[in-house]
Design brief:
0% strand; 332 residues; DUF318; 15 helices
Length: 332
């Protein structure tokens, strides 16, 4: 008898905490509080809130798209639209990423849902790494941010498209499309408000609500860890080695991973480094960060098997780094 009540209590409590957060953020002036807080902690707080507030709208977008997929897209439909040949299917999977304006904050729940609906693992990975970059919003922001160096925008799109296919192909060779999702019981199954009784619209809202609270805790943890790195990382060390063609791409990849910026905004941060870092290292930052950062790493470990996530991290890191070295050698 208590089982149906517990999810409701949990959701009401979570909504109350969110309401309290926004009330404190909007209406309470913490400058009037008399106790002294170390400046580093204030910086952590500012960074944490900025990352969280930047990411929440995209998480909401992601969970709603995920819920729509759950409600309206059948397993048979996915099997019909995808090419039967696993290798041939890599190209349309990469092109699919160019349709949706989704950043890396929102892509994990969408890919997870598509895989549950029957999308093969390697195609889900193509979408996972490609969609946050291959969309019109990211191209426009990169094109505008770099002004006279607009070739960087085209290079970013080209590298992301090619590398998403390469990474998907390697994942296919390594895992042979074995299921790598963690087995998790769907909370929505136990709700008394199933889709048959309340209709598809309410079912979509219930799915989105469940997924938002499930994803939200990992977003908060990732944002907090990222804010600690941003506050205490010595950035002067980065600029000292920014002109090295071998080291600077690796440094900027690490920087992109730690900062955990949304792909719609990271081009403006990269442009601020253009005087200190090589073009290749800036591209490394712009390609690697949206594919893999602290926030989505924590989400990946939460919903995928650890062995797969570890292999995914290594594959993405090695492929991006080597591709940047090749690009520097032949195109710069």
């Amino acid at each position: 008898m208590n089982k149906p009540i517990l999810p409701l209590v949990r959701e009401v409590f979570a909504l109350g905490l969110i309401g309290l957060f926004f009330y404190l953020f909007l209406f309470v002036d913490f400058h009037d509080i008399s106790f002294n807080v170390p400046s580093e902690l204030l910086t952590v707080n500012t960074m944490f809130l900025s990352i969280l507030l930047e990411a929440i709208p995209f998480i909401l977008l992601g969970v709603f798209i995920s819920a729509l997929i759950q409600t309206f897209v059948s397993e048979d439909f996915i099997k019909r639209v995808l090419p039967k040949n696993a290798i041939v299917a890599l190209l349309p999977a990469a092109l699919l990423g160019a349709i949706f304006p989704i950043c890396e904050c929102a892509i994990v729940p969408i890919v997870r849902r598509l895989m549950k609906k029957g999308m093969p693992l390697h195609l889900g990975v193509v979408f996972l790494v490609g969609a946050p970059i291959l969309n019109p919003v990211v191209f426009a922001s990169t094109f505008y941010a770099f002004g006279t160096e607009q070739h960087i925008a085209y290079a970013r799109m080209g590298l992301a498209f090619i590398l998403s296919i390469v990474i998907g192909f390697i994942i296919y060779l390594v895992f042979k499309n074995k299921d790598q999702l963690k087995i998790k019981q769907e909370i929505i199954v136990n709700h008394s408000h199933g889709s048959e009784s309340v209709g598809k619209l309410k079912s979509t809202l219930y799915h989105a609500s469940d997924e938002f609270f499930e994803m939200g805790k990992f977003l908060i943890l990732g944002a907090f860890i990222s804010s600690l790195f941003q506050t205490f990382l010595d950035r002067t060390l980065l600029t000292e080695i920014g002109s090295n063609d071998i080291l600077s791409p690796a440094i900027m990849m690490a920087f992109g991973y730690i900062l955990s910026l949304c792909s719609e905004a990271d081009a403006f941060v990269a442009a601020s480094f253009s005087g200190s870092f090589t073009t290749g290292s800036l591209l490394a930052f712009l390609v690697y960060g949206p594919m893999l950062d602290l926030k989505n790493t924590i989400m990946l470990f939460a919903f995928f098997k650890a062995k797969f996530v570890a292999a995914f991290i290594v594959i993405v890191t090695v492929v991006v780094y080597l591709s940047i070295l090749v690009y520097q050698q032949f195109f710069l």
